[in-house]
Task: inverse folding
């Protein structure tokens, strides 16, 4: 061998250039107008910087310029998949601030609506996660078939499918008829069979397992430190559910369990959501059994609903939080005794759960970043506010 | 544990730190002491406040405030609400992002909308608004741009694109630009009382 041959030793294996890729804001996998600034080394992710604000409308300032009652429809637009859960949190915060009581039937209706919302959210999120994995729109259509049934209920009860604007301080906007309850019973009865069907397609699917297991592992101590909440936290094995911890509304009356993951990877986040839906069905069954005729709104609060400018909570502050399907949804309100809130702040789980996006993605391939983002479950209306 | 017990425990454990009870929350009187108080609440086995639920700002005209809601995931207790007050012209508060990762985005948000400077934050940039945005929109003295206002630049743009503009508006715009003002034809509002 006289001619000079190029050997592997001549080229430095680390001598590669990194490539900066912008995912979004118009990328279909970002679930809206969200941008990930990803630095790639080959196919491997070196760093991720989330860039947000494309849907920012200063929700908090809008609310500070309105009366308390007029903010309610704006909360629908935060997490537009779960308007009932947003209403719930805001109603709780104002009730805490103004010390308003809620009659029993209204509490039952609220819990039923909140749990139906959880079903809607989790089933669609799983559908979209599978979309991100490449199972293009088949799981989403299965999910949306069930979602439509629940949205029909929302339409019958509140008048709107997605922007429900259904909760009021001290109760709900209008009563639920027996026919509606019967319809909900039917849906709840059939839901476990649907979940079995959905799981038969997905849970032991080889592609799903290979793509999701050991991807995007979130250790529990980092999850707690980074204020992660909701199914993402519980998939890492931390037992923290505000329905159990705060026992707000009437959640202490129902027996249900908190599903926990043990690894904290994308697969656990998927499976925790499936199990949470099964627990939600249990809560719904008990609530539908327990609901009795009665008032759907406190008689005192009907007066200030007609005259919202007369509703002046006492000077003070309140922090109301609920377990929304995405995590801890908190509302921080400061009243100065006028009809408008002096300070209104939304603690949005979508934003804060993104804190760990970089930790989850670094070291994985670029295709994994998309499913990791899908498994965190963000919604831009709430993230950007 | 009620709020005055928490106060006395903090003050006895951390000499030199004084806290005041303000509407069921603890006001840390010197902003510089915040990290010490938070570290104590996080590490002491009595409190174990390992979860920082919410960080936000508020504008009370005389001062700016930063409010923290702490919970314990280990003991399932809380909240302990901490607050810090700073002068509007020098809004500097130590950042908690190195103690709680969860504060990172929330402090960036409060900086973005209130202009509170969190010292030692790893990456204090605007979160929602774009680079170069002027002002802090959630401060109570922030003047909101009105969509009814026609700006001098808008008129220039319209003219360049061959869109006819009434002569009086063009004249006004030119005059205002000479004076160094930006907008014209402001719609009367209730606040301005025009």
Result:
């Amino acid at each position: 061998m006289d001619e000079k041959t190029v050997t592997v030793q001549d080229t430095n294996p680390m001598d590669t250039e990194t490539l900066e890729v912008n995912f979004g804001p118009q990328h279909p996998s970002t679930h809206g107008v969200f941008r990930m600034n990803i630095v790639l080394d080959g196919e491997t992710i070196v760093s991720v910087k989330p860039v947000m604000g494309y849907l920012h409308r200063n929700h908090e300032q809008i609310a500070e310029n309105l009366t308390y009652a007029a903010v309610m429809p704006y909360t629908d637009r935060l997490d537009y998949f779960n308007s009932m859960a947003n209403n719930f949190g805001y109603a709780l915060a104002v009730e805490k601030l103004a010390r308003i009581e809620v009659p029993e039937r209204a509490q039952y209706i609220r819990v039923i609506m909140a749990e139906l919302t959880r079903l809607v959210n989790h089933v669609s999120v799983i559908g979209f996660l599978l979309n991100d994995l490449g199972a293009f729109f088949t799981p989403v259509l299965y999910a949306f078939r069930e979602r439509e049934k629940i949205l029909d209920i929302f339409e019958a009860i509140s008048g709107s499918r997605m922007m429900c604007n259904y909760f009021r301080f001290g109760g709900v906007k209008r009563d639920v008829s027996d026919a509606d309850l019967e319809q909900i019973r039917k849906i709840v009865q059939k839901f476990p069979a649907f979940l079995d069907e959905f799981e038969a397609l997905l849970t032991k699917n080889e592609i799903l397992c290979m793509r999701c297991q050991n991807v995007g592992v979130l250790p529990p101590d980092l999850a707690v430190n980074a204020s992660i909440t909701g199914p993402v936290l519980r998939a890492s094995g931390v037992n923290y559910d505000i329905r159990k911890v705060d026992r707000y509304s009437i959640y202490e009356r129902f027996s249900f369990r908190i599903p926990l993951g043990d690894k904290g990877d994308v697969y656990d986040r998927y499976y925790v959501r499936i199990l949470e839906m099964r627990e939600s069905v249990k809560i719904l069954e008990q609530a539908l059994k327990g609901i009795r005729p009665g008032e759907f709104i406190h008689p005192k609060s009907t007066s200030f609903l007609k005259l919202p400018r007369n509703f002046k909570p006492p000077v003070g502050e309140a922090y109301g939080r609920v377990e929304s399907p995405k995590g801890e949804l908190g509302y921080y309100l400061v009243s100065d005794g006028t009809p408008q809130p002096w300070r209104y702040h939304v603690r949005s789980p979508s934003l804060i759960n993104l804190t760990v996006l970089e930790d989850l993605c670094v070291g994985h391939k670029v295709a994994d970043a998309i499913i990791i983002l899908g498994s965190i479950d963000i919604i831009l209306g709430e993230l950007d506010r | 544990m009620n709020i005055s017990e928490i106060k006395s425990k903090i003050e006895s454990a951390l000499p030199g730190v004084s806290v005041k009870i303000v509407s069921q929350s603890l006001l840390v009187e010197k902003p510089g002491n915040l990290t010490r108080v938070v570290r104590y609440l996080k590490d002491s086995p009595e409190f174990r406040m390992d979860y920082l639920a919410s960080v936000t700002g508020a504008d009370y005209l005389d001062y700016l405030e930063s409010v923290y809601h702490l919970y314990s995931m280990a003991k399932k207790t809380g909240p302990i609400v901490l607050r810090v007050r700073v002068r509007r012209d020098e809004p500097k508060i130590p950042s908690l992002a190195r103690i709680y990762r969860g504060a990172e985005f929330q402090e960036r948000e409060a900086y973005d909308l209130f202009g509170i400077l969190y010292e030692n934050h790893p990456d204090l940039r605007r979160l929602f608004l774009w680079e170069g945005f002027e002002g802090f929109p959630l401060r109570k003295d922030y003047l909101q741009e009105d969509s009814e206002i026609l700006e001098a630049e808008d008129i220039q743009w319209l003219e360049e694109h061959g869109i006819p503009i009434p002569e009086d508006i063009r004249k006004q715009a030119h005059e205002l630009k000479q004076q160094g003002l930006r907008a014209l034809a402001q719609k009367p509002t209730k606040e301005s009382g025009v």
Summary: Residues 185-194 of chain B have pLDDT under 50 and may be disordered.
